[in-house]
Amino acid sequence: MRIGQLAERSGVTAKTGRYSESLGLVDEPERTPTGYREYDDEAVERLRFVRDAQASGLTLSEIQSVLELKAAGSRSCGPVS
Q: What is the model's pLDDT at position 73?
């Protein structure tokens, strides 16, 4: 899906999606032969998590730490999985 669809499905703006990607909160997507970003469903879930974590008061740095722990296979509690 393209950035507009990603933004709509995750509840953020396209600008926020690109910014989250630049910070490494969302993996860099594949590109089409014409250079468009092609996001997958995992990117939607990541952006939703980032949005919800920010709404809960976490900073982007703290969110990055949680995502790094998850990527490493660590789990602190059920809701984080």
A: 78
5 touches 44 (CB < 8 A):
no
- Give the position of tokens 């910070």: 23
Residue with tokens 């952006």: 47
- 73 by Cβ neighbours in 10 Å (0-12 / 13-18 / 19+) ranks as exposed
Q: Within a 10 A sphere around the Cβ of 64, how many other Cβ atoms? A: 15
- Alpha carbon of 19 to those of 42, 46, 67, 80: distances in Å? 17, 13, 16, 23
3-state secondary structure of 32: coil
- Rounded to two decimals, what is the model's pTM? 0.82
Q: Band of the pLDDT at 17, cuts 50, 70, 90?
A: very high
